[in-house]
Amino acid sequence: MTDFDLIAAEYDAQFSSSEIGAKQRQRVWKYLLRHTASEQKVLELNCGTGIDAQFLGKRCQSVHATDLSTEMIAAAKERNSLDNVSFQKLGIQALSEVKGHYDLIFSNFGGLNCISPEEWSLAGKEINRLLNTNGSFIAVIMSRKCLWERFYFRLKKDSKNQRRRISKQAVMANIGHQKVATWYYGPTDIQYFLEKKLSHVRTKPIGLFLPPTYLESYFQKNKGMLKALSFMESFSLSSDWLSNRADHYLIHFKKQQQ
Q1: Which of 60, 119, 163, 166 could connect to 115 by a Cys-Cys bridge, CB 3.0–4.6 Å?
Q2: Would you say 22 and 53 are in contact if contact means Cβ atoms under 8 Å apart?
Q3: In b/e form, how buried is each residue of 182-208, taking b as 16+ CB within 10 angstroms?
Q4: Is the pTM of this model over 0.90?
Q5: Strand order of the sheet with strand 62-67?
Q6: Cβ distance 49 to 23 under 8 Å?
Q7: Rounded to an integer, what distance in angstroms lies between the CA atom of residue 10 and that of residue 42?
């Protein structure tokens, strides 16, 4: 049983269905709408409870969604109502088992922060193998220099957690009621793992003004402030240089003709 099996039942309530989580996801979907098409075949990594698989399934030809957690896959299958979306219990460490080629490989909201640098390097080779020429790899990664997190933990006078994301080692981060080994990566780290075999398209902040989801309870009591921050967030997708200061960043690569 994985850590994510233990939190699958509460995952949507704490993250996906939270107001902050939904607003951050809308930013990602807005970008995907501009970079997906009806003829595309999609491979999703760390699909969780299948919300993004459903969204992409309505947009693209087919979606094959994977996750290491048995319970997450079960929840995703229960949610799914589309014939062109399939699910497989599979960790990123086992991408060599995936066959075929894809026009888009996608991973949302920090799933790729749950693998070590060594595992990332191996995954990078498999991502390159699985992508069609002109295919895209789009991932949403937890950043290393989140301004919100530094500010929040500074107010709490928690110096250890204030700078936890800059650690090069795994950090035991709270995901629901579980602690999960988490590595924080900057955009240049991702380019390094991909060995420059894919061309960088752009990097965008997700959660520069919108806060992390663990502040949901505070902003439920201050909805006017959250509305204002959401309005400010709507202009932040053009702020590439601030991506590593947001809660997450979206990074997009493309496989060119070799």
Answers
A1: 119
A2: no
A3: bbbbbbebbbebbeeebeeeebbbbbb
A4: yes
A5: 85-89, 62-67, 41-45, 102-107, 131-142, 248-254, 199-206
A6: no
A7: 27
CA atoms within 13 A on the CB side of 74: 10
Contacts of 114-122 with CB under 8 Å at 24 or more apart are 114/46, 114/180, 114/181, 114/182, 114/183, 115/183, 116/170, 116/183, 117/183, 117/189, 117/193, 119/92, 119/93, 120/185, 120/189, 120/193, 121/193, 121/195, 122/93, 122/95
Alpha-carbon Rg of the chain, whole angstroms? 17
Q: Distance between CA 207 and CA 79 in Å, rounded?
A: 26
∠ at Cα 67 (134, 55), nearest 5°? Answer: 60
Q: Read off the tokens for 148.
A: 């919100």
Any residues with CB less than 8 A from the CB of 15 and at least 6 apart, and which?
21, 109, 213
Helices 19-34/223-233 angle, 10° precision: 20
Q: Which two tokens stand for residue 199?
A: 């061309």
Q: Are 201 and 136 in contact (CB under 8 A)?
A: yes
The CATH superfamily of 3-144+184-254 is: Vaccinia Virus protein VP39 (3.40.50.150)
Domain limits, the chain: 3-144+184-254
